[in-house]
Amino acid sequence: MAKTAQLLIDGKTFELPIVEGSEGERAIDISSLRKESGVITLDPGYANTGSCKSAITFIDGDEGILRYRGIAIEELAEHSTFIEVAYLLVYGHLPTQDELDAFKTSITFHTMIHEDFKRFFGAMPKDAHPMAACSASIGALATFYPDGLDPRDPQQVETSVHRLIAKFPTMAAYSYKHSIGQPFMYPRNELGYVGNFLYMLFGTPCEEYEVDPVIKKAIDLLLILHADHEQNCSASTVRIVGSAMGNLFSAISAGIQALWGPSHGGANQEVIEMLSAIRDRGLSAKEFVEKAKSGDDSARLMGFGHRVYKNFDPRMKIIRNACIDVLEKLGTQTKLLEIAMELQEIALKDDYFISRKLYPNVDFYSGVIYNAIGTPSNLFTALFALGRLPGWIAQWMELHADPQFKIGRPRQIYTGPKETPYTPIEKR
Ligand code: MLT
Question: Which atom of ligand 1 is nearest to the CA of 230?
């Protein structure tokens, strides 16, 4: 295969190196193009542009492959736990038992947050969206831990990484408790990472809280499935903010804001709002689909298809089975879930969906599971962020370890007015 690409511009040929990855992906390295030719490339949304070389996650959108550090998502979903996957992503290999125990101990040590955070959350409006609250509180960690901000000090980075993974569940739970006027629940570390999170979300001081093993397993699986997804919008945000040499908390805070967007992580909340609208309008799934097909703006299909996976999202197959398992074990059958299953059946058979590759995606089923276990819809994306946190951290660490590290500063093609004289206000 060619090792270089030739570009002919104004009669002159420019030879550019071709880079090949470990899975055979190829890219034209254009890092010298502007200097040699005076020309740049243009790729709105960067759909055809690689921002980096990365060894963290591999996606094959045509074959429906997703691997973290080379290990297939199907194997991790079956055999691993979220905290072990977090270690795998951050440190690059599966931990030994001693490494995993030490990691869990350190995370457990950091689960509490400074008491002043109670006033921080308390100052927010009751209806503050958890993503806004989590982004603000994660960013504020930089004020509580000024000793952990140097992105090039390995010890400071390690401590900040563990603090983030440990404290995010506490912060997400606090933002939820504040929104429903219930007291914050201090972490109970003996419950484990996910069990403690469920306790802080749904426990109260008035009675013992029993962690449901079915719900715990479902949440653990959802966090694994969301843990990383190569250079998606929020991971790219974390990288570009991190490239300014700021602290890890600021980059993660920015990543949370990017994930909140309905075109990105906010899609799972949109799914439940779509299902609720179908129910509240007294429509059947079939009637809603017909409206969507006719272009009716009040009937937007959320939770279908994916910009990278062309045939199916490998996470969807795993989560669909978990969804059926959770609904059966919990015996939760609501109108919302009935509509979701009807929509699923239509999407998997109707040529309108099949021809457009509009299969139910990970957001469709995660929204259904979160709803079935009683999670409020405005917390769905915070759960996505909790899952994605180790991926963001891994991407940020890889950025700082990259020998080709530089600040992210794309160019542009200017299309505005040519030079124009200043017009005094009296002459305008
Ligand atoms: C994700 O997991 O981040 C979403 O599927 C979006 C993406 O990869 O672009």
Answer: 8
pLDDT tens digits along 115-151: 999 999 999 999 999 999 999 999 999 999 999 999 9
Closest CA to 256 of 177, 140, 338, 366: 140
Which residue lies with its CA nearest to atom 8 of ligand 1?
232
Question: What stretch of H or E contains 6?
Answer: strand 4-9
| Ligand 1, atom 7, residue with closest C-alpha | 232
**Greatest alpha-carbon span in the chain:** 79
Please give the number of the atom of ligand 1 that sits closest to the Cα of 226.
Answer: 2
Element containing residue 82 per DSSP (H, E): helix 82-91
Ligand 1 pocket mutation, candidates 60, 68, 222, 229, criterion most atoms within 8 A of CB:
229
51-62 tens-digit pLDDT: 999 999 999 999
Contacts of 364 (CB under 8 A, 6+ apart): 268, 271, 302, 303, 304, 316, 340, 343, 344
Residue identified by tokens 């779509």 is 274
